[in-house]
Each structure stands twice: as C-alpha cells, then as structure tokens.
C-alpha cells in the first residue's frame, strides 16, 4: 500500500513539475482559443497529463481498498515532492516556515502510519 501511495504521489508531482517547466518557458495565454489549445499540444503538458491520469488511477485504486482517513493524509507526500522540485529544479527559495510545514507533514505521516499499521 505504501509503495502505491508513493507511486501515486510521485506521478502527481511529476505532472505538476512538467507543467511548471512548460509554463515557466511559455506562460499560459488566454488571448485566443487557438493559442490556448496550442499550449496543450506541448509534450510536457501531454506527458504531465498522462502522469497525473496514472496518479489518479492509483489513487482511485487506493481509495477502493483502504480507509479514506488513511489514504488522503498520506497523499500529502505530494506536497513534499513538489517542494523538492521547487527547490532543486526551479531554484525557488524555501523559507524556514515552509521547511517547518514540511517537517510537520512528515511527522504527521509518521504518526498516522504508527496509528494505522497496514501491510506495505
């Protein structure tokens, strides 16, 4: 179960990262429908959509097999992965409060797993 959650979160974060890479190069333009539509034919956008779709399939499977009160909080791993991408790929500055929040998320995941032991 934990591996599936990690895979779902990783695919979600991959999609977000691919979209950010594309939009960092070429911001989303709403000036015309054709311009907007052309944005979605970028390989980064399409691959990001595929990543996100696969993430959702895994997420749906997890919801069908495990408790909602366990799966939803565990998907907060996505926030940690996105923060890592922001720092390492996009060279964003991460504040002490952001780091503190991330540590709280990690602590929450550990507490949740201790309170709800499941088979990996």
Gyration radius from CA atoms, angstroms: 17 Å
Spell the H/E element sequence.
HHHHHH
Find the count of extended strands (DSSP E, 2+ residues): 0
Helix content: over 70%
Q: Output the number of helix runs.
A: 6
Strand content: under 5%
Largest pleated sheet:
none
- What overall form do the CA principal axes indicate? flat
Unreliable stretches covering 5 or more consecutive residues: none
Based on helices, strands and strand pairing, what is the structural class? mainly alpha
Average pLDDT confidence is 92
First and last CA, distance? 5 Å
Properties at a glance:
flat, 120 residues, mainly alpha
Explain the layout of strands and helices:
Blueprint: H1 2-25, H2 33-39, H3 43-65, H4 68-74, H5 77-88, H6 96-115
Helix pairs in contact: 1-3, 1-5, 5-6
Describe the structure.
By secondary structure, the chain is an all-alpha fold. It contains six helices and no strands. The protein has helices at 2-25, 33-39, 43-65, 68-74, 77-88, 96-115. α1 runs parallel beside α5 (77-88). It is flat, with a radius of gyration of 17 Å. The mean pLDDT is 92.
């Amino acid at each position: 179960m934990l591996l599936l959650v990690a895979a779902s979160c990783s695919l979600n974060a991959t999609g977000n990262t691919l979209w950010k890479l594309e939009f960092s190069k070429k911001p989303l333009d709403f000036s015309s429908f054709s311009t907007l539509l052309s944005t979605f034919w970028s390989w980064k956008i399409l691959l990001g959509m595929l990543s996100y779709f696969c993430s959702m399939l895994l997420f749906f499977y997890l919801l069908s097999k495990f408790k909602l009160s366990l799966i939803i909080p565990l998907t907060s791993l996505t926030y940690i992965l996105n923060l890592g991408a922001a720092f390492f790929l996009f060279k964003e500055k991460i504040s002490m409060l952001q780091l503190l929040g991330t540590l709280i998320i990690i602590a929450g995941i550990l507490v949740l797993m201790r309170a709800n032991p499941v088979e990996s």
